[in-house]
Amino acid sequence: MRRYLYLLSSLGILVWSPLAFSAESRGSQLYKLCEKCHGLHGEGNKDLLVPSIAGRAEWAVKLMLEKYKSGKLGKDPGDEPAIRMTSMARMLNDKDIAAVSKFVSQMKPAKLEPTIVGDTDHGEAKYAVCSACHGKDAEGNQALNAPPLIGLPDWYIFKATPKYLAATGRRGDVTVNPEGAAMVAGADTVKDEKDRRDVIDYIMALQGVRGKSEEKKESSNKEKATVMPSVEKKVEAPKESK
Ligand code: HEC
Ligand code: HEC
Q: 64 CA to middle of ligand 1, Å?
């Protein structure tokens, strides 16, 4: 046993006595395992395709950890980020998952850096479908196992959504991830990249995160920024030139 513990600590894996910590500090101890990918404050890491998780609903963190652990997510050989997360989740037992989920949910939500700009109004129309499961304010719906979309980085939503389509991934394969099958119809409505950008722009707008273009803020609220400026050139001149 001692040798086993020594081996674990020499691998940099955390060792603790279950009795020595309350559930909460156990969560914070466990979070040390997550830090190198998800960051000190749960802010995520775009370069490593790691989403922010700080402040996500406890049930949603738990749900996702259980999915990675059971292999419902991370089975697809092409879903490399999910595979990386799977190897982490497999090291956690049910109590660990409960404790770390609680800890993560209590972290201060990360500030999202917008990287995707779209047509907010068109995105709002597109979001009507998503709202049936993910909620009017993208807050998620535990009864439907639909995670909150707020708090997730825009680039992550952009990449994750099409993975539910049979053509691009197996997240929606009913034999692999039964809950994911519900999401296939949703993913299908935004399989077009422009639609996806628009709906994501709206999801970001819902939580007060605007598109990256400053001109969007500076132009009148009614004027729409678009992913294809060549098609719609009616954007007002920036302030400086007035
Ligand atoms: C080796 C890097 C790595 C480590 C360590 C790691 N993660 Fe992750 N995590 C990822 C990646 C990459 C993803 C995105 C997976 C995907 O695209 O499906 C992810 C996704 C998640 C998600 C899903 C977010 C969502 O709702 O979509 C949760 C929750 C999560 N991680 C929690 C944790 C927790 C808690 C720990 C520590 C116990 C941890 N992770 C450790 C890389 C890591
Ligand atoms: C019929 C219900 C339903 C609809 C409609 C739906 N979703 Fe989902 N969505 C789900 C469920 C259930 C999951 C969890 C799937 C899983 O377990 O892998 C999910 C997962 C997701 C995820 C991954 C979340 C994460 O934490 O990794 C994203 C992103 C997403 N949906 C975006 C959308 C968008 C955008 C729309 C609208 C265009 C949409 N969904 C419409 C049910 C739905």
A: 8
